[in-house]
């Protein structure tokens, strides 16, 4: 992901009550940032909502302590009559309460079920990716030949493996002010706030989507 990253301010609004200890991350935070994008010439861009940044982001990370993780996800549509082979996922984000970097990133693709993430796509889980890290914005190349998807609605989730206790801090996935399709969703399986998938409106009383784009090859079905 070739872009210019500009940081004008970084302020954190913790949604959890009480102060965090040195080893316990403050759960569910917003971060404020500013991004300016330059789309590479000739890039094979399949899908793009990596713009219209609100200056806010929401945790989507594994704190590297087993079940302690937050997870965001957003949907996209492969057009009718097309097959996409996704070879790269780019997201916009920022570190806070620490300087990073993440040890790695996980990318998971889900089928859509009743307007939310359903079953994982076969061969659609990519753990431990080492994407290009631009101060918390990741460009992550998928291994092998990437992931082939037929027409339909899918969800993509990105989780930064970022140890709070180890000094990485927290990673926020930045929000897009324009909603594309279904509203982005979030969950915290080990916590009290949205232990199952809920919309950003339900979980945080905010709206919008997450910022990401997909790159690869588009073909007509049966080509």
Parts with pLDDT < 50 across at least 5 consecutive residues: 1-42
General shape? globular
Mean pLDDT: 81
Taking the sheet with the most strands, its summary is: 11 strands, mixed
Topology as a string of helices (H) and strands (E): EEEEEEEEEEEEEEEEEHEE
Give the helix level as a range of percent: under 10%
Number of domains: 1
Q: What gyration radius follows from the Cα positions, in whole Å?
A: 17 Å
Count of individual beta strands: 19
The structural class is mainly beta
Calculate the terminal CA-CA distance, rounded to whole Å: 28 Å
Give the percentage of residues in beta strands: over 45%
Instruction: Enumerate how many helices there are, as a single number.
Output: 1
Plain-language structure description:
It contains one helix and 19 strands. With 223 residues, it is an all-beta fold. The chain has one domain. The strands form three sheets. Strands 5, 7, 8, 10, 11, 12, 13, 14, 16, 17 and 19 form an eleven-stranded mixed sheet that branches. Strands 2, 3, 6, 9, 15 and 18 form a six-stranded antiparallel sheet that branches. The chain has a two-stranded antiparallel sheet with strand order 1-4.
Per-chain topology:
Blueprint lengths: L3 E3 L5 E3 L14 E3 L2 E3 L8 E4 L4 E7 L1 E2 L8 E21 L1 E4 L7 E10 L2 E14 L2 E3 L2 E5 L5 E15 L8 E7 L8 E3 L10 E2 H5 L4 E2 L1 E9 L3
Parallel strand pairs: 7-14
Antiparallel strand pairs: 1-4, 2-3, 3-6, 5-19, 6-15, 8-13, 8-14, 8-16, 8-19, 9-15, 10-11, 10-14, 12-13, 15-18, 16-17
């Amino acid at each position: 992901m070739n872009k210019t990253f500009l940081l004008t301010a970084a302020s954190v609004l913790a949604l959890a009550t009480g102060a965090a200890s040195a080893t316990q991350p403050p759960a569910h935070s917003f971060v404020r940032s500013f991004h300016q994008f330059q789309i590479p010439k000739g890039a094979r861009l399949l899908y793009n909502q990596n713009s219209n940044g609100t200056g806010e982001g929401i945790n989507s990370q594994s704190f590297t302590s087993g079940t302690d993780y937050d997870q965001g996800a957003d949907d996209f549509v492969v057009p009718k009559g097309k097959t996409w082979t996704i070879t790269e996922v780019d997201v916009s984000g920022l570190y806070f309460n620490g300087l990073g970097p993440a040890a790695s990133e996980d990318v998971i693709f889900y089928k859509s079920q009743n307007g939310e993430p359903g079953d994982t796509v076969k061969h659609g889980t990519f753990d431990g990716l080492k994407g290009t890290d631009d101060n918390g914005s990741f460009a992550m190349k998928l291994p092998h030949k990437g992931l082939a998807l037929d027409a339909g609605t899918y969800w993509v989730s990105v989780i930064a493996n970022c140890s709070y206790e180890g000094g990485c801090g927290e990673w926020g996935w930045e929000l897009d002010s324009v909603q594309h399709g279904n509203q982005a969703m979030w969950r915290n399986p080990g916590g009290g706030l949205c232990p199952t998938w809920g919309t950003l409106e339900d979980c945080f009383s905010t709206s919008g989507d997450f910022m990401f784009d997909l790159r690869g090859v588009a073909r007509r079905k049966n080509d």
